[in-house]
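Hi there,

I know you've been waiting on this one. I reran it after we fixed the sequence typo, so this is the corrected version. Both the input and the resulting structure follow.
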Amino acid sequence: MINLETPRKFRPFIKQAHQVAEEFLRANSRKYDLAEHSYPKELDLLASLVDGMGDSGQGQGAGASAVGSRDEKDDQAGKGKVKNGTNMSSVLSIIEMCWADVGLLLSMPRQGLGNSAIASVANDEQLERFKGTWAAMAITEPSTGSDSAAITTTAVKDGDAYILNGEKIYVTSGERADSVVVWATLDKSLGRAAIKSFLVPKSLPGIRVERLEHKLGIRASDTAVILLENCRVPAENLLGNPEIDVKQGFAGAMATFDNTRPLVAGMAVGCARAALEDTREMLAKAGVVIDYDRPAQTQSYAAATFIAMEADWEAALLLTLEAAWLADNRKPNSMEASMAKAKAGRVGNDITLRCVELAGTLGYSENELVEKWSRDSKILDIFEGTQQIQQLIVARRLLNLSSAQLR
């Protein structure tokens, strides 16, 4: 049974993550928001520290690359014991980092969502071979929107390689990363089952960054359009099993989302917590009293609104922790991962925007970071599957219907 207390073994690590977030990320948050597309050089040292913690075993999964760790020696779930592992520690550390800055977290070398995809589906040989790479993740295409199963990028087998052709948009860290996890179809006629992911080094001929996007939020993070034109990728860079299993369908690809969606939910939880904390301080300075011993309806509008936001935030946090806990304990978490992503994404948007309202003119000014958090939080309800897609997935799971039966 899940224990809602932060695991004792993670507490020193979480404290350390918060300190790093405050001193490295929060301190540079506005700087790189205003200097869009400028590389945050301060992160190189931080990334080295995270790498060192991970190599020494002290990091407890200090970033996205650790998610999906399959160390059977430490897997206690099969012995009837509860395990708090890398999925939980990664979510907890991401919450602290995004309390500081979502865009800077997404800019950290070797901690991208592409690294999570590698950790989720790569075999043991690939995990070792791709260790140390910084991988962006390329799923979305101009014509597919949120329907990842409608991918049109093709991968055609040619001897000991695959030839990839297609266009990917909104690729986070697409310019800065040294490789890209590209989702492509081996055979369009076979539908979802033929979609596989490939680790494509950007040094290969045929892959290029076409342009960088200017964005509402997470401006510290580069978001790229990537073109693949007859890009020849070694066959061994197809992540996981190369066989097409029609019976399994899209399940293999969805395993990536089951690991990454709780991470994005954690980003939203961390960003919303930052907004709540700063807004509480501003309300206190304005003389607003928040009394938890009185019914909300008997208090001021500002106090009642704040209490409601805290309750929503708590629900998002618990759903996020549940999804991570299930993954650590080798239990199916697809529905819970989507529930966490849907709830946290919506709550993150609602809280940060309402905090702007409650803060009044301060909330709309660049003198306060709550203005920035309201912009950053929007993407967390969109990427890795929009709010609407998450609700659709949850409905299918609850009603036991296929994607063909419930669209």
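Quick highlight: Residues 251-399 form a domain with the Butyryl-CoA Dehydrogenase, subunit A; domain 3 fold (CATH 1.20.140.10).

Best,
R. S.
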